[in-house]
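Let's do one together. I've listed all components of the complex below, 634 residues spread over two lines.
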Amino acid sequence: MHSAPPHVLTAGLTLLAILIAAIAMGLFRKPLDRVYITGGSSGLGRALAVELVRRGAHVTVVARDLRKLEETTAALKPLASPSQLISHISADLTSAESSEAALNDAVVAWGGKAPDHVYLCAGFSRPKFFVDMDAQHMKEGLDGVYWVSAYTAHAAVKRMVAQRVRGKIVFVSSFLGYTTFAGYTSYSPGKYALRGLADALRSEMLLHNISVHIFMSAGILGPGFDAENEHKPAITRKIEEGDKPDEPEVVMRAMISGIEKGHYQITNLLITDLIRVGAAGPVPGNGPLDFVYSLIGGIEIGDDLSPILPAPTAFAF
Amino acid sequence: MHSAPPHVLTAGLTLLAILIAAIAMGLFRKPLDRVYITGGSSGLGRALAVELVRRGAHVTVVARDLRKLEETTAALKPLASPSQLISHISADLTSAESSEAALNDAVVAWGGKAPDHVYLCAGFSRPKFFVDMDAQHMKEGLDGVYWVSAYTAHAAVKRMVAQRVRGKIVFVSSFLGYTTFAGYTSYSPGKYALRGLADALRSEMLLHNISVHIFMSAGILGPGFDAENEHKPAITRKIEEGDKPDEPEVVMRAMISGIEKGHYQITNLLITDLIRVGAAGPVPGNGPLDFVYSLIGGIEIGDDLSPILPAPTAFAF
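Okay, and this is what the predicted structure of the assembly comes out as:
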């Protein structure tokens, strides 16, 4: 063995010094994630904003109510490092124009770069019997469930594809986007429609390295849930009496965990998984456990008004 | 044994004569079915109108194009008896107001009585990539698939329930309302949404003795299909190259047969049945064969762009 000649040692040390300086200057640092969250001022969207700010992302929350947005960013900023950009935009996301305008506003802070993570958490539910609602209620239901997410997805995907940004589009549907019952004729069509959009978009986005996910959430506690219950028909309430909605933080963790596992249709309840394997169709499943769920069996509704567990009237196959 | 006294015989013969006269006068005859068919001037809707006129129903067809409507009623009238009422109404069914107005017009001929059979066959498909469409294309897609049926269903159900008319509401969705792929982001959301509406409405209508059906049709030959193919992206065409669309009459017979069997979700292709048992969720199935279909297995899409049979990349369970 012999020691390295002094000039080789000097060159090595110089290179090492340059590398350390480059790391210190952030030249090798991955740029921060640009996260765009609709419905980000309350419930699931806000819980997600808190978590992703803690994880070091740039976060823009979008919602309608300016006061709640201001309150949200005031709560988010203390959690952020000085390099993280935290902002909010007030917009009516049921309109295509203002959905696109909101996104255009958001990207200004990112030097025009498209978001790389889009979480579509906006939406609301107002259960009512079909025979008791007017056409306006039907239209507002679809606007507030489907368009509120579809227009933003469209604006974001177009910008991401144009800039070759690889990222994620995450829709939020519902257990009631797999199957449904009396009381949800103005809600479930939009939640099913989101699944139709996600199923088709997932396929198209394989061409562009953008991953699409859809979270089939069970009930989430909060002001949205309280408003939903205010006018819920008695029969709908009866069908759901076994349900146990979760806190937004718990639901948010299930959603992030599903995304991290690479699941396409993400669930947060065993019964949703049972329904998923019998209702998702031939889109990608979530792994070997799906086989176990399929053995537990497809659940079939009988002709009664308790169409879901815990009181099914017939188990088929 | 002894013969009946003459006055008993006379009374019996008189009763018999009254009964024969009553039958001849139609007093015991079931009133003719009042049938309302949207999209009734072409394709599936028109084939259905022809068949139901032949079966002796009152039939009103609704569509936008007045010339095609006039041509349709001219073809229907020679098939009808003098007691059958055949008429047409031109209306834009993507608007709630004109959907309701069209129904109000239709019932005038029936003395204000609600239809007892409503067939929702209107709709169109214009495949396009999500990244290539504008928001107007998205909106027109949903209007022309979802609202074109949902508003009429709403107006009809309200009138039927108010008059305690027992009858049927039949939606027309699609194979692409179970699962979908690149090219259908403006079409499948509406077809999924119709399934969401039908699933919730089926449950609510158990309270009112109205049966709800949804026909998950495979491709139907005709002008609608030709228009769909005109701008179809090459990838979408490739995915569908194994498909064999049927003539409207063949499809119509499958739909009527499904209704007669009491199926809730009606199919007209083996592969649709395979998808149905893995995509319908816990709504009522179509009988013992469903078990066989479930054994053939859930079909899972791999991460490629041939997401449906005949070339699936993975079979799960």
